[in-house]
Specification:
The protein has about 725 residues and is an alpha/beta fold. The protein folds into four domains: about 90 residues, no CATH class; about 240 residues, Alpha-Beta Barrel (Anaerobic Ribonucleotide-triphosphate Reductase Large Chain); about 240 residues, Alpha-Beta Barrel (Anaerobic Ribonucleotide-triphosphate Reductase Large Chain); about 90 residues, no CATH class. It contains 25 helices and 17 strands. The chain starts with a strand and ends in a 6-residue tail after the last helix. About 45% of the residues are buried.
């Protein structure tokens, strides 16, 4: 018999009736009351074959399977027919199980090593790291098939856009700025256990690490603290208070001959009578009260006498010792924080939390002590003196606070510059940038713009204009547009470029809105820490099973972009570091994108913004896909990766000061996040001059330091 059958792929294959017999046999084998004899199996098979080949056409696999079901039912084999239907359905599901996904799983499982890790902080070669990758790849396949609209999924797959953290598409949001001041008050629960309010600077930093870790388990990107100096300052006073009374007891025991029990009892009496309103900056009034009360109390009670001079000496000793012990405790706390944030695990033990700390503007002695010791601990590094990658330190630069020699925290600014010349993790933000300065209120940390280590900025609030603050807010999700691809598709025709750009903006914003709608259907109990402990702003108003929609509106929806330089080269022949015309065109392109985001804010009442995508992995992916699609295009696809966001390529076309002037105007257009990079050949003095130039130019956020430290830190090159 030369009969043929059409396979599901459309290919023709020889008609093999033994496959029909085998399938019926497997379906029938479990039913003794319907057991088919070999003769009956042959007869049934022949009947199916006769029906299948009766027409003048080539039957398909599906048609033959339908005939098998009909013949089984016609002959009264109901149970076998049911089993065959189930068997058929199982094989259908197996076929639909993405073969590419299976190949990915095979590579994850059996390849001995991988040269590159996809995400900072995850060791994907460990058992738990690989298990996370299984989940990640499976989730992305599920979303592509069942959740994301086909045209959007196709745009991502082809490299027109990049949906960041697609594996968390329907589950959670990007990031949050955690305010420890509100979180620590009265203690909090991580979802696994309750922690008391901290009473020592060492406990403050330990709980800060735990908060970052707990939040990292409920979100998918960088977790930040917007006010680290202000938030840790109360821990300094609590530590000082304990050290002061401990030192009083020591003085009375060692120099005045008190017994341990008597010294303890007297210290408790002092607290009861004089209170504990004592802090690093409030000792004089307490000392005067102690000097008057202590001799009188001892005389009236008939206890061990203490003269006014001895009372004064004991107070002075306690103040001196408490200051030293508190400073030492602060150093120890910051050293532990650096080590913890580089070693503690999240997400089943496979990831170090991506953490960011904003600080630099608290001018109180307590805040200054925190900043000073944090910088010292960062300079000291890890246990072997190694480079600490986390947390990302974001030193907030502000004229009148720390920028100039007459400013109260200028010495700390200089210390930060010193550390930045040795450690890659110290970055700078500029509160005098016009878009940051408009919100700034002196001494109010809630008005100070804060950044994440992945450059995300959250400040403006269209959804709630009375709540413009970074505290308790973050990014919901962001998706990046491949600008060079649009330029290549438009073949240099600018009107066509803008036409395609607006189509991509519409597609991307539609995708972000759909993702947000899914996120809004999550409930408070899906976020036991983020929502359950009031970390996300206004989430303390939610009941356990409330939808989170009303509070997620406080977050931001961001459209990013990659490769402005290559797009300009495709359009004009030169990038914006080579041509003034290209710079004007670049500002026009990004300006149009920014205005599109503003129009979405007005239309929806949501916080849309533009972000200058810093992700090198996305730049690599876009360049690889475009090279495959368009071939080698000089100045565009003839490179391993595109230039991130609006950055000027590091090709020697401009010096560092020209780079600052060229890139600074884009910061005001990308309120969702931005970055200026500067690799320097000099030391601290050059770095300070560069930072001042950035401040004057209106830069919002920057990484700057000696070129050699970025070259020596693997994976951290600028």
């Amino acid at each position: 018999m030369n009969a043929q059958i059409r396979k599901r792929s459309g290919e023709l294959a020889p008609f093999d009736e033994t496959k029909i017999r085998s399938a019926v046999f497997k379906a029938n084998i479990r039913f003794t009351q319907e057991r088919l004899s070999p003769h009956q199996l042959d007869e049934l098979t022949h009947q199916v074959v006769r029906r299948a080949l009766a027409g003048n056409f080539i039957p398909t696999v599906e048609q033959v399977q339908d005939l098998v079901e009909e013949c089984l039912i016609d002959h009264g084999y109901a149970q076998t027919a049911k089993a065959y239907i189930l068997y058929r359905d199982e094989h259908r599901k197996a076929r639909e199980f993405d073969p590419e996904l299976m190949k990915t799983y095979e590579n994850l499982t059996f390849r001995p090593n991988r040269e590159e890790q996809e995400y900072r902080g995850i060791n994907e070669d460990t058992a738990m790291g690989t298990m996370l990758e299984y989940g990640s790849e499976g989730a992305k396949a599920f979303y592509d098939r069942n959740v994301i609209p086909p045209e959007i999924s196709q745009a991502h797959r082809e490299g027109a856009i990049h949906i960041h953290d697609k594996d968390f598409y329907a589950l959670t949001e990007t990031s949050c700025q955690i305010d420890p001041i509100t979180l620590f008050h009265g203690g909090f629960s991580t979802g696994h256990g309750y922690l008391r309010e901290p009473n020592d600077i060492r406990s403050y930093t330990a709980l800060a690490c735990i908060a970052i870790q707990a939040n990292q388990n409920e979100m998918h990107e960088s977790q930040g603290i917007p006010n680290f100096d202000y938030a840790m300052a109360p821990g300094i006073d609590k530590t000082y208070r304990k050290a002061y009374f401990s030192s009083l007891r020591q003085y009375w025991q060692i120099l005045l001959g008190f017994s341990h029990d008597d010294a303890m009892a007297l210290a408790e009496e002092v607290k009861e009578q004089l209170g504990t309103d004592l802090a690093l900056t409030r000792t004089d009034a307490f000392g005067e009260a102690l000097i008057q009360w202590l001799p009188r109390h001892q005389a009236e009670k008939g206890f061990h006498p203490i003269s006014p001079e001895e009372a004064k000496a004991s107070h002075q000793y306690a103040v001196r010792q408490a200051e030293e012990e508190t400073d030492a405790a602060c150093w120890q706390a910051m050293e532990a924080l650096i080590h913890n944030l580089n070693t503690m695990n999240s997400r089943a033990g496979a990831q170090v939390p991506y953490s960011s700390l904003n600080y630099g503007t608290d001018t109180s002695p307590q805040g200054r002590m925190v900043i000073r010791n944090l910088l010292k601990a960062t300079e000291a590094g890890l246990g072997d003196g190694g480079m600490p990658i986390f947390p990302v330190h974001i030193f907030k630069v502000k004229e009148g606070v720390n920028l100039n020699p007459s400013d109260p925290n200028y010495d700390l600014f200089r210390q930060a510059i010193h550390v930045a010349c040795k450690r890659v993790s110290l970055h700078f933000s500029f509160l005098d940038a016009p878009f940051n300065l408009r919100w700034y209120r002196p001494g109010d940390y809630t008005s100070e713009a804060a950044y994440q280590g992945n450059d995300i900025r959250v400040m403006e609030n269209v959804a709630d204009p009375d709540c413009v603050t970074p505290c308790g807010r973050g990014n919901l999700s962001f998706t990046s547009i491949n600008l060079p691809r649009i330029a290549l598709e438009s073949k240099g025709e600018r009107s066509q470029f803008y036409h395609l750009l607006y189509r991509r903006l519409e597609l991307t914003s539609r995708q972000l809105r759909q993702r947000m709608e899914i996120q809004c259907n999550r409930r408070a109990y899906n976020y036991p820490f983020l929502m359950g402990q009031g970390v996300w702003i206004h989430s303390d108003s939610l009941r356990h099973d409330d939808l989170v929609e009303k509070v997620l509106r406080q977050g931001t929806l961001s459209v990013g972009f990659v490769g402005l330089a290559e797009a300009l080269t495709a359009l004009t022949g030169q990038h914006h570091g080579q041509s003034e015309e290209s710079q004007r065109l670049g500002l026009e392109i990004i300006g149009r994108m920014s205005r599109y985001m503003e129009s979405l804010c007005r239309e929806t009442g949501l916080n849309w913004n533009l972000i200058a995508t810093p992700n090198k992995g996305t730049a690599l992916r876009f360049a690889r896909l475009d090279k495959k699609e368009f071939g080698i295009v000089p100045g565009v696809t003839d490179r391993e990766k595109y230039t991130e966001s609006f950055l000027v390529p590091d090709d020697g076309s401009v010096d560092v000061y020209q780079r600052i002037q060229l890139e600074a105007p884009y910061h005001a257009l990308t309120l969702g996040g931005h970055l200026c990079r500067a690799s320097l050949d000099g030391g601290e003095e050059e770095l300070e001059q560069v930072l001042r130039a950035m401040k004057e130019a209106g830069v919002g956020y920057a990484i700057a330091g000696p070129r050699e430290i970025y070259q020596s830190a693997a994976g951290q090159a600028l």
